[in-house]
Write a structure and sequence with these properties.
Helices cover 36% and strands 23% of the residues. By secondary structure, the chain is of the alpha/beta class. It has a single domain (5-249), classed as Ribokinase (UDP-N-acetylmuramoyl-L-alanine:D-glutamate ligase, 3-Layer(aba) Sandwich), CATH 3.40.1190. Helix 2 (57-68) packs parallel to helix 3 (84-97) and helix 5 crosses helix 6 (155-166). The chain starts with a strand and ends in a 21-residue tail after the last helix.
Length: 266
């Protein structure tokens, strides 16, 4: 039996709710073996980020080569990349190892408002990393920032931004609607010339720390197991929705607490 392996390339969250920690929990909950390449260490908790220590690009390279030279990686999730030199290291690593599936969560700002990507790295994200992605998963503010446009409000505007993001060279775009209003949280999957709306009930909880990280890693887990893109996105959205619904079973921290990755198990 072949063990599906997924790799997360992201930052570490010292409070365990987002980043590398959320990704590895998600992989494990969905039956996928998780490996990691750490791009930055953060000092953070449920109230916000108090410090960032960027991992040197050459050590990011060393981690990438160590993983790919030994493990049969079926899918990669990319989260916080922190700086331009890290983007360059990732792109060079992908040229050597050519992963089949790359899910890019274009993390630029934390939920708390703390900046997680250097300003001079945004253009490299647009022009060097996005064209390598099988799927990018921006939320509404991130999609607007990537396009230098206002945050989309209407469904037509969201679909239009999805098509513009596709023109940057990625194979598919999932614009997440968690920042919008309404009784439902609607995500929009743009692939080719079509857009699919994926709705789920909006859940009233303040414990949503790590939601975006977990969604992108859940999609990568599905792709690692051989699911097609739409199936992987649908199962990922169902997993995260259930994890949010169970989040209040936790009492962790004094701010926005984590979601419950292992809701199926305890």
């Amino acid at each position: 039996m072949t063990t599906p392996v997924a790799l997360t390339i992201a930052g570490s969250d010292s409070s365990g709710g987002a980043g590398i920690q959320a990704d590895l929990k998600t992989f494990a909950a969905l039956g996928v073996y998780g490996a990691s390449v750490i791009t930055a260490l953060t000092a953070q908790n449920t109230n916000g980020v108090t410090g960032i220590h960027r991992v040197p690009a050459e050590f990011v390279t060393a981690q990438i080569d160590a993983v790919f030279s030994d493990l049969d990686v079926k899918a990669v999730k990319i989260g916080m990349v922190a700086q331009r030199a890290t983007i360059d290291a990732i792109v060079a690593g992908f040229s050597r190892w050519t992963p089949k599936h790359v899910v890019l969560d274009p993390v630029m700002v934390a939920t708390s408002g703390d900046r997680l990507l250097a300003a001079d790295a945004v253009e490299a994200l647009r022009t060097r990393l996005i064209p390598r992605a099988s799927l990018i998963t921006p939320n509404l503010p991130e999609a607007a920032a990537l396009l230098g446009a206002p945050v989309a409000v209407s469904e037509a505007d969201i679909e239009g931004q999805g098509q513009l993001l596709l023109s940057m060279g990625c194979a598919a775009v999932l614009i997440k609607g968690g920042h919008a209003d309404g009784a439902e949280s609607i995500d929009y999957l743009a692939h080719g010339s079509s857009t699919i709306a994926l709705a789920a009930p909006r859940i009233a909880t303040r414990n949503t720390h790590g939601t975006g990280c977990s969604l992108s890693s859940a999609i990568a887990a599905g792709l690692a197991k051989g699911e097609d893109l739409e199936a992987a996105v649908r199962q990922a959205k169902a997993f995260v929705s259930a994890a949010i619904a169970a989040a209040d079973l936790f009492s962790v921290g004094h701010g926005h607490g984590p979601i419950h990755h292992f809701h199926k198990f305890y």
